[in-house]
Design brief:
- This protein is of the alpha/beta class and 355 residues long.
- The longest helix is centred in the N-terminal third of the chain and has 17 residues.
- It is built from 9 helices and 17 strands.
- It is 23% helix and 28% strand.
- The strands form 3 sheets. It has a 7-stranded mixed beta sheet with strand order 3-7-9-8-10-11-12, covered by helices on one side.
- It folds into 3 domains: 117 residues, 3-Layer(aba) Sandwich (Severin), CATH 3.40.20.10; 90 residues, Severin (3-Layer(aba) Sandwich), CATH 3.40.20.10; 94 residues, Severin, CATH 3.40.20.
- It is globular and about 55 Å long.
- Belongs to the villin/gelsolin family.
- This is Gelsolin.
- Pfam families: Gelsolin.
């Protein structure tokens, strides 16, 4: 962005048209990725992306280190080490950004020439080590604040659908583009780009007009994330906001969690407030303290009453507990996984600290 204020507010260093080079981590080294596949990431891999751009009359460099959710701890550690090494080779002037799968900042999603940033579930793209894709695959296509789109592969089940997004379903014999009632044109074109990458043509299906074969491919009909709010496109005026409530410091505090919402943001030892405008959810982590639980209920009410937007004081407050989230809650998070917390959070935290 030419205006620093706009750049800061939107997290956009420039318009995404700079030069880029991408490497995949393999063992203890980095291997150049074929430019024809730029923008395609595998959950079992880690990558380094070097981005060059100009701001004013200065040359800027960003090194993104993208770490897949199923990447090994060794490769995550190697990606961090090689990022520092690359920066030293460039004279120590690059901005370094560590990106965990699902938390891609707006600028990173915008550097692939209008094409979506695609994340394949698990697997790897390395030579000779390609994982063969599942026969039935489902992708969720969602646009970010920068107007760029992300296509994320998720479990092929009807409960994963969401009225606010576009989904691409590929089966061994056919493909569908399912268009939710609240989906945007950007998301529709992102789905078209994804079909080009997958090399298939698809039948477009509007929400509510699905053929029986569509549901059969997803293992049968199921309740999914839908609400008048998800369908009516008011998301832009009142985007969802997430807050962490904690008394770890000895006093009760509420802090907003920035960026796109992912399950990783929900701290199991805290209480979280999710404001979706037509209701406020109080999510209770299984290790939250009693005081946090009682205070957060009161805080949710105060939050509504003191909102400068002059909220309806009767806005419902919904209390939910970790592991028992309804679709009306999980639908606000990209690529929600029902068994996410079956991995010990301490193990996950220690693994991240080891990097």
């Amino acid at each position: 962005h030419t205006s620093p204020t706009m750049a800061a507010q939107h997290g956009m260093e420039d318009d995404g048209t700079g030069e880029k080079q991408i490497w995949r981590i393999e063992g203890s080294t980095k291997v150049a990725v074929d430019p024809a596949t730029y923008g395609q990431f595998y959950g079992g891999d880690s990558y380094i992306i070097l981005y060059n751009y100009r701001h004013g009359n200065k040359q800027g460099k960003i090194i993104y280190t993208w770490q897949g959710a199923d990447s090994t701890q060794d490769e995550i550690a190697t990606s961090a080490f090689l990022t520092v090494q690359l920066d030293e080779e460039l004279g120590g002037i690059a901005v370094q950004k560590r990106v965990v799968q699902g938390k891609e900042p707006p600028h990173l999603t915008s550097i692939f020439g209008g094409k979506p940033l695609i994340v394949f579930q698990g697997g790897t793209s390395r030579e000779g080590g390609q994982t063969s894709p599942a026969p039935t695959r489902l992708f969720q296509v969602r646009s970010s604040t920068s107007g760029a789109t992300r296509a994320v592969e998720i479990s092929p089940a009807a409960k994963e659908l969401n009225s606010n997004d576009v989904f691409v379903l590929k089966t061994p014999t056919t493909a569908y583009v399912w268009v939710g009632q609240g989906a945007s044109n950007t998301e529709k074109s992102g789905a078209q780009e994804l079909l080009n990458v997958l090399g298939v043509r698809a039948t477009q299906v509007a929400e509510g007009r699905e053929p029986e074969s569509f549901w059969e491919a997803l293992g049968g009909r199921a309740a999914y994330r839908t609400s008048p709010r998800l369908k009516d496109k008011k998301m832009d005026a009142h985007p969802p906001r997430l807050f962490a409530c904690s008394n770890k410091s000895g006093r009760f505090t509420i802090e907003e969690v920035p960026g796109e919402l992912t399950q990783d943001d929900l701290a199991t030892d805290d209480v979280m407030l999710l404001d979706t405008w037509d209701q406020v959810f109080v999510w209770v982590g299984k290790d939250a303290q009693e005081e946090e639980k009682t205070e957060s209920q009161r805080s949710a009410q105060r939050y509504i009453e003191t909102d400068p937007a002059n909220r309806d004081r009767r806005t419902p407050i919904t209390l939910i507990r970790q592991g028992f989230e309804p679709p009306t809650f999980t639908g606000w998070f990209l690529g929600w996984e029902d068994d996410y917390w079956n991995v010990d959070p301490l193990e996950r935290a220690l693994a991240e600290l080891a990097v």
